[in-house]
Amino acid sequence: MTSKHYEIQVGVMVDDDSGLTLSQLCRLCAVHADYVVELVEEGVVQPSGEEITQWNFPGMSIQRIRKARRLQTDLGINLAGVAVILELLDEVDYLRHRLKDMER
After folding, report:
1. Partner of 94 at 20 to 30 A CA spacing, among 1, 3, 18, 101?
2. Can you tell me the distance from the alpha carbon of 34 to that of 53, in angstroms, rounded to the nearest whole number?
3. Is 7 part of any domain?
4. Domain contains 92
5. Over the stretch 15-64, which tens digit does the pLDDT of each residue have?
């Protein structure tokens, strides 16, 4: 008799409006808090809240941090460059959506 092995994957559903603490965000993105602080300083992600202990991040921060990390590790781009690239990618997405809306 053959045995079957199944892999169980567990995930967390987060929408863009979800608020994430710094520690939750770090855990979901597998990064250190210092890295997220650097991304905040570069404007890659923008938390609400005055103090670091009060920071609350929108769900879309997960995707931005993961993209930033890939740009750094895969292409060796520094944080300032990552911030510019992500801003340009946002602009491209915005323009594509506008073009689609105009075509309707």
Report:
1. 18
2. 13
3. no
4. yes
5. 556 689 999 999 999 999 999 999 999 999 999 998 999 999 999 999 99
